[in-house]
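Give me the fold.
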Amino acid sequence: MALSSQALNVNASLHRPSNSQTHSFDRLKISIPLNLTHPWKIRLPQKPWPEHVHEAMKSTSRKMLDAVVDFMFQFVDQPLLPSQKNFSPVEEIGEATVVACCEGDIPVDFPEGVFVRNGPNPLFGGFKSTKSIFGRSSHTWVEGEGMLHAVYFKKESRGKWLLSYKNRYVESETFKLEKPRNKPSFLPAVEGDSWAIMAAYLLNTLRYGTVNKYISNTSVFEHAGKTYSVAENYVPQEVDITTLEACGNWNLDGNWDQPFCSHPKRAPVSGELVTMGVDVRRPYYVVGIISADGKKLKHKADLKFDRSVLSHEIGVTCRYNVIIDHPLVLDINRLVNGGQLVKYDKEGYARIGVMPRYGDASSVRWYHVESSCTFHLLNCFEDSDEVVVRGCRALASMFPGPDWGMDKFDWFSRGFDFRELVDPHADKRGGYLFTCAYEWRLNMETGEVQESNLTGTEFSMDFPFINADFTGLPNKYGYAQVINSKSSSESGMAKYGGLAKLYFNEPCPSLSDSEGRGQGKNSVKVEYHNFQKGSFCSGSVFVPKKDGAGEDSGWIVTWVHNEETDVSQVHVIDAQKFESEPIAKITLPQRVPYGFHGAFICVPN
């Protein structure tokens, strides 16, 4: 979420999205008939306006609309609690700063490259709400301009490591529009009173040509030697990994006009990049296949969804694309009728689709599964007649949060209180944000589904990752960030106090009822790496050894912040000695806020 899981804004339009939605917007349209047959009507010039006149008219129009917004809307800071301090933004540090290991050493065989992580870093001091005659609207916790944080690992001639740190905003098109104004300008348009959201839709579109900012804050990925920053509501931004400078949009020569998935997958063998885009208007879900060299969109398919779902990730196997359709739904009609734009429907259906790589809507085989929310996938692969899907599954959605008007802090606080799952005497009103590693086995011959909780109810985990060389292939190991229930409940925000290593081919050791605490018959062995008290991580990734002898031959690197000392570090952990202390800790020159997804980009000399 991100939450990322991870991501997640809406790319919408007040133009007619479909016949079924037309009536919802009739009241918003203004029709001014012009009868030019009457002599008192002024005839417009037949020639086009000179360019300077056209630009002057546009400038005047923008200024008038800005004046309307300034008069009618008041921007208000969304306050943070002391326990939420490290969710607040930081400034750009400028030039790269040399850093060093405060404990341990970087291994000799660690690859040269860049450990980079994306995350929200809202402009102008933090998230904003607005007040107006239309009501209130506010930013959700996943919004905020993207900022990249990077540690560079470079070997000097004598084999000595030279480490440096840099951070930088992802300067998207909308960032460049708003930053020079030196004040908030885009109206929040996802969460709030319905009339306030619709007013934001209209005014943002009239002033900037888009409903929401292109935040590009969720993840970072590499394809064909290029690095990209992305969030669900727009196309990726190419990034110069050496400077973190945004180099422009990646829309495949205009052939990809959809939002872009935060977790595209490289297909085994072919090296093609499989992505998808979800939208609030039709087509709701589109799959795309990009060539291995990143130059061509080879295939594009509208899957003909009948609802707009906020799906965060797509899976791949050797032959198939794996589609997640869960009941986190975006609905313009619901918004117009006074409800929320984005809402998790716990009574709604969930299904998983298996689609041939170059298939279309008619070729997808759908498997209905127990209703749930799955933002992140561990991996997918083929096993005889089955397609195996592993992900992090919850019975509620952290995004957008409670219904508008409810106590947001109380809702998140109770959702992260997992005591009732392990204590029969605990309060039964909470724990609904618990996330476990989960497996679906989809039988392609019989159409049957087998579902299993792989990690029980002792620890909640999300933001999973694997050795990326095994994407789409059978794998033995998976990793995830582990939520600290107490700290998350006290702050009303997810905090990850450790890491988990999952051994998929090894069953959980036999434990007594008093010790097992919710381990099911299909639970797998799990090891845990816990951070110091008051320390929490984000953006964790697996870095494989260049000539590794096994799937788990490599390191886990992660961003860790100690809230008691207010110091941020990068930790390097030996994946084969997972429960041991980190083999290296790199202290950073400034605080790094909690963020979403990271990547390690190999950049040899």
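Residues 1-7+67-77+86-95+105-250 form one domain.
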